Amino acid sequence: MRFELDLTLDDLACRAGIDLATLSDIETGNVCLTGRFVRRLSVALGVRMVDLMLSAAVQSRVSPRAEQSSWRDPETAIVRRRLTPDGVGALTELVEIEYPPGAACDYRDPPFESTEHQVLVLDGRLELAIDDGASLTAYALDAGDCIHVPRGCGMMVSNPYQRSARFIVSISSI
């Protein structure tokens, strides 16, 4: 993606706030891409996080579960599965995420300026805090609960419970 934007490795490292050597290792596949770096790179490249986790895709209106792209963060063991069919140009992406017990991610820096999110808990329990820039509001979510995260807000997601939490995130471009 950086070649399409005519960015040098150094340019991207500066934009993303990632050490040049680490970014080089990520690009060459010497180290695994973690959730922490996916967030920074997606903002620096101006693309959605799920787009960084995909390989070249064939357009199809149907996304069979067996063919859905999934990615496991080696640092947190969080598993993300892209549900939206590849290559259809959807304005809303659906991602299924599984947080093992003790997993946590901070998605506040930078905040989501051009997307809004909805989170629907399918199984387990989840803690989610929304940061609107002025305050941080925490929510405890159970299976069946859905929460809206407005554009311009960041969020923190954690699973402090004894069993895994599985949820769907709807990411809408505005």
From TrEMBL:
SUPFAM superfamilies in the record: lambda repressor-like DNA-binding domains (SSF47413), RmlC-like cupins (SSF51182)
Statement: the UniProt record of this protein carries the keyword DNA-binding: yes
Annotated keywords: DNA-binding
A molecular-function term among this protein's GO annotations: DNA-binding transcription factor activity
Entry superkingdom: Bacteria
Residues covered by the HTH cro/C1-type domain: 4-52
GO annotation, cellular component aspect: cytosol
PROSITE patterns: HTH_CROC1
Keyword Lipoprotein assigned: no
Coiled coil: none
Name this protein carries in UniProt: Transcriptional regulator
Native species: Blastochloris viridis (Rhodopseudomonas viridis)
